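In this notebook, the sequence line spells out the residues, with the fold written below as integer tokens. This is how one looks.
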Amino acid sequence: MPPLTAIRAFEAAGRHGSFTGAAHELGVTPAAISHHVKMLESWLGVVLFRRFARGLELTGDGRRYLPRLTSALDEIASVTGDLISERVDRD
């Protein structure tokens, strides 16, 4: 499985359409997001974004990958919230 930090960086960049937006969300620099996305692309052996002087565009592979990752990360957040809520209710 690829590193979770790289997955989170790609997913946030894909939703925001920019490394800057993803960086603000995740509390890191745009360069860190770029590095993580490049690492993920290398790990997968595919290009996920087309990079332009004024922004990003998801490739076909990126468009297919993004919604499944978003769904998976949303599910992790949901089940984590449920677990925390259940623990608080028991205490």
Q: What stands out?
A: Residues 19 and 71 are 20 Å apart (CA to CA).
